[in-house]
Amino acid sequence: MSFNSWKDTLMHSHHTTQDQMGWGQHGFKPFHGMAAQFQALMGQPGQRARRGDVRTAILRLLAEEPMHGYQIIGELTERSEGTWSPSPGSVYPTLQSLADEGLVTAEPVSGKKVYRLTDAGVDAAAQLAERSAPWDEAAQTSTTGTGYHHAAGRLFQAVFQVGRTGSAHQIGAAVEVLDDARKRLYSILAED
Fold first, then answer.
1. 146: left (phi over 0), alpha (psi -120 to 50) or beta
2. pLDDT at residue 93 is higher than 80
């Protein structure tokens, strides 16, 4: 089975279009819609946190060091083992709210807004220190904290890399590995 046949089978089995999968007339476009691909292929949406969890997480992270918004998102994703990746649409309004409350300040550094706690923010973060970290809770509640999403993400990165840069021989070998992996995963489900 060629890579294009595999890609077409994958797309049609999930009722997606080439644009949604990130394939265009010139091949795979890296990271184009990748989050949606992972969610669709894994069968469940990403972990969503309550608004208070985002606030708590930001205060706890900024107590460690000043960060910019995307750095906060990256840290939360990494610390939750990939199970929680808050969107910019939840992080940036929360940062603005914390700034309005006088708990954080922002200063431009290398073209990015870097947020740091004020004295009041340090006090607020200290009050949260005894609680379990929201990223730990997210990692434990999603797929029982097994690292499933993180492992699936690493697998998809490899699949897309082979599809984008592999030779015809390498892609053929990858298809065999993927077919075997699919069969083995279904056999796990068939076990008692």
1. alpha
2. yes
pLDDT bucket at 192, cuts 50 / 70 / 90? low
What pLDDT does residue 188 have? 81
Residue carrying structure tokens 């990403």: 46
If you search the block for the tokens 């993927």, which residue do you land on?
178
pTM of the model: 0.50
φ, ψ for residue 26 (rounded to 5)?
A: -105, 20
Q: Which residue has the tokens 């985002």?
A: 54
The span from the CA of 124 to the CA of 118, in Å, is 10
Give the residues across from 23 on adjacent strands. 28
Helices (H), the chain: 3-13, 18-21, 34-42, 51-64, 69-79, 88-100, 119-128, 134-141, 148-165, 168-190
Tokens representing 175 are 């298809």
Q: Is 116 helix (H, G, I), strand (E, B) or coil?
A: strand
